[in-house]
Amino acid sequence: MTAPAENKYKKLTILISIVLPLVVAALFGVKIPNVEPLSFLPPIYASINGLTAILLVVAVLAIKKGNRKLHEGLMKTCLILSILFLGMYVAYHMTSDSTKFGGEGAIKYVYYFVLITHIVLSIAIIPLVLITYTRALSQIFDKHKKIAKIAFPLWLYVAVTGVVVYVMISPYY
Length: 173
Hints:
Blueprint: H1 3-7, H2 10-28, H3 41-64, H4 68-95, H5 106-137, H6 141-169
């Protein structure tokens, strides 16, 4: 496939990259009445973030060793895990009040720095991952590799900081 194959995904990538964060933000403010809080979800979706981070690293190692099939399977798994994370994250916040961070002093600033960078980059990573993925689907591997060098460390940061945020706020649940 060539660049025209990549172009057929362009509008969908733009649409998802804009609509997804807006929908998540809107749903974040929606509380389902008379529903038991899904308080068991945070450790599950934090674990999903941790697993995603591990699989991202293994996927990069696989492609560096020339194992394209393993790399492809791991990356598809990472995408599925990210979708599962997002569904659980939204479900939790639609049934539960937000937890306030109770730490004081310097740790409070560290927490908010990690949280804010995590949130901002989790939005920024959406188009990067989609473009990287569609370039692979379109078999434009030179362009895929170029953007993957940007998308990988950012996605890894988002996955790891998701776990860090959970660990830091978990005493306050």
